[in-house]
Amino acid sequence: MLPPTEQAEQRRGQRLLFLAILFFVLLNFPLLASADVDGRLGGVPVLYLYVLALWVLVVALTGYLVRKSA
């Protein structure tokens, strides 16, 4: 059995890996194509907003996971 600190590190690594895979899927063709419409929100294309929102979300969740575990 692993010591608690190693278990926490292993869980953090698994969560970060899951997060990376999740955002890879969200930025892959079928979902990315669904945001590629002619519409605009506030003068900004929807596709740009989708990618920006996902990027902000991945940065925020990664920061949260790293700080929570540290």
Explain the overall architecture.
It is a single chain. The protein has 70 residues and is mainly α. The chain has a domain at 24-70. The chain is 76% helix and 6% strand. It is built from three helices and two strands. It has a two-stranded antiparallel ribbon. A hairpin with a 2-residue loop joins strand 1 (40-41) and strand 2. Helix 1 (4-26) packs antiparallel against helix 3. The mean pLDDT is 91.
Strand order of the largest sheet: 1-2
**Structure summary, number of beta strands:** 2
User: What's the average pLDDT?
Assistant: 91
Counting H and I runs of at least 4 residues, what is the number of helices? 3
- Helicity, as a percent range: over 70%
Compute the separation of the termini in Å: 21 Å
Task: Tell me the radius of gyration.
Answer: 16 Å
Query: Secondary-structure element order, as H and E?
Result: HHEEH
Beta-strand proportion: 5-15%
How does the helix and strand content classify structurally?
A: mainly alpha
Main sheet, how many strands, which sense, barrel?
A: 2 strands, antiparallel
Organism: Hymenobacter saemangeumensis
Transmembrane segments: 45-66
Keywords: Membrane, Transmembrane, Transmembrane helix
Protein name: DUF3311 domain-containing protein
Can you describe this structure in just a few lines?
By secondary structure, the chain is mainly α. The chain has 3 helices and 2 strands.
